[in-house]
Amino acid sequence: MTTMVVGTCCRCQTERPAETRKRANVHGRILHYPYKVFTKNISRILHWTIFSKPSLMLTAASPLKRLRPNIMSAVLTAQSLFPSSDETPSLQKLVQALNNAPVVSSCADVPEGKKKIGTHSGTFHCDEALGCAMLQLHPDWSGSAVVRSRDASELAKCDIVIDVGAVYDHESRRYDHHQRSFDGILGRGFSTKLSACGLVYKHYGQEVIAALYPEHSADVDLFYDKLYSGFVEHVDAIDNGIEVADGPLKYSVSTTLSSRVGSLNPRWNQKSSPEDSNERFRYAMLTTGRELLGKLHNMVSSWFPARSIVVDAVEKRKTVHPSGKVVLLDGYCPWGGHIHEVEKALNVDVPIEYVLYPDSSGKWRIQCVPVEPGSFQSRRKLPDPWCGVRDEALSELTGIDGCIFVHAAGFIGGTQTKEGILELAEKAVAFE
User: Fold this and answer.
1) 27 lies in which domain range?
2) pTM flag (> 0.70)
3) Can you say whether the dihedral through the CA atoms of 79, 80, 81, 84 is positive or negative?
4) Is 134 inside any structural domain?
5) Is residue 155 domain-shared with residue 91, that is, in the same domain?
6) Helix, strand or coil for residue 274?
7) Model confidence over 195-227: pLDDT tens digits?
8) Using CA atoms, how far apart are residues 62 and 57, in angstroms rounded to an integer?
9) What values do phi and psi take at 406, rounded to 5?
10) What angle do CA 131, 137, 142 make, to 5 degrees?
């Protein structure tokens, strides 16, 4: 182990000599690390713990739990060390809001003058955690107390109530979806029954997006629809017990946001108090809020800039192949999130089958357009005789120099040159 330099203990501020040991249980609480060494590594530990294994923060044996008073600011320190640090401004808004937001079981514990967000006590779920996180990101509700109770008299004192109360009434700011008569949907082409987060998103989502990205005020509606279909809708569906597909499922997905939030609850055989449950709910708001911010940030910084590139390529498609079935991109961009929408917007009559683009090494790819966004089924896969064939064998089979591969599933292939990929696309379109 590397010898540590002389430094100041991060807890007691006393000078400590150099040590070859990784730790010294002098206090029995926080270990004696030289201060500089501690601060360099703790942010990395916190980043991994909070964003990858948040449940570790909640175990009684975890020494990190003792850092609770300063945990939120430590998250931001950790975030700034990573490549996605351009997310920090929006993450900071969430962290500051959660720092200022008491999570309590009674309105009597809320400081005077603070607005109160009501939700149910007991086992929490992703929908109300995400709904509360969204409200914390809203300018009118940032830093509001969260009151977790099923007592109707307590909830009546709250300024807004979500996921409890059996009432959906926007005028009185009551947003529950459990009543038998409820059949609310977002509309705008979406038909999934809403949960608590969907109701919050329906009435406050556009304002949250506009507050986070004021420079994109003209594009809020576009982001609003995309964030719902790409993030919020699946939380609504899971909470309402709507299967992702008809018929038997071929496999289960056990790492959804909903399942990760569920794991933050105490185990069935673990003792817990209302105070402990409320702190766990705070971490659930952090977990869901950060994921929402990450999705939105990716849309604004990556997905949206690609749209104009795809539009331009689709408009020029017949200069690539007279059938209009092939699109050529001069550089890679996330085209899959746009191609279907752009086809509709431009009234494309012949569906696009293949997209050509250079990869990061300068070689070229041909990729099949899926039947719908996110599907593994292609509109038209590459010819069966090519599938799973590579290099010289593929060049000999196709008659095209410089072939690299065609995937065994036939959804993607590659060549050394642009000329080669254009020829491969031409033969794929003509293949019977």
Assistant:
1) 1-81
2) yes
3) positive
4) yes
5) yes
6) helix
7) 999 999 999 999 999 999 999 999 999 999 999
8) 7
9) -130, 125
10) 100
